[in-house]
Amino acid sequence: MLQFIKRFNSCNSNDRFHGKGAKSVTADSYLRHLVSRGAQAGLIASLGAFASMCFAQSNGATTDASASAKGPSITTCVACHGALGAGSEAGVPRLAGNNPDYLAHALSMFKAGTRASAPMQAVAQTLSNSDMHALAVFFSNQHPPLVQASPPPLPTLVMAGKQLAETGAGRSVQACFSCHAAGGKGNGVRFPSIAGEPAAFTIARLHEFQARAKAAPVKPGTMTAVAATLDDTQIEQVAAYLSVTER
User: Fold this and answer.
1) Phi and psi at residue 147, in whole multiples of 5°?
2) Residue 186, by phi and psi: left (phi above 0), alpha (psi -120 to 50) or beta?
3) Are 194 and 188 in contact (CB under 8 A)?
4) What pTM, to 2 d.p., does this model score?
5) Deepest in the core among 16, 40, 44, 246, taking most CB within 10 A?
6) Cytochrome c domain: which residues (predicted)?
7) Cα-to-chain-centroid distance, residue 53
């Protein structure tokens, strides 16, 4: 699977893949086909088929099952994080389009146990540094549609959240984009992209930071310090706005 990730990332929208006896298809059109299928089971099956197609391009592709089993599995990631890392309405974060260095660093923290998440720590324990990098690069290059909440957020919440994200609220609440860059698209390893994150994830994450602020003194300028200045209404507003903002 690691070979598939690296081979996939070497393909651009002008690359064409040829299966034996099959019509050629562009990487971009294939990805759009995967996303349009919707069902997770179908996506996983399609990813497997596409991996086989990529492997077929090289006579040197390994058939050693034990070796491939040790590589990172995209299907494991999308089982929780949604099609091509889109995230989920239930609160699983969006991976797609984020900074690859940030994603790889997050995986390394899960593996080291310095970032808490039992499921992610279990997954990260199986990954090498090169695995983490390969997965990070793969998901950073994906751009699936935003997760659609049901019901969608109220326009009043979205507009209020937009103001908080862009300008903050006076001196007490710092604007989200002052650190996470214009549009919430992210700023290097330290400040990930927050645009497009499912509302449930943003709400839960900010509450985590608030819990840290209550447990120990906070450092100025950290997310823990920023979250401590927000009330529940403001958190809901920001989450609503970010959930409908393209990354």
Assistant:
1) -65, 130
2) left
3) no
4) 0.71
5) 44
6) 63-143, 156-246
7) 25
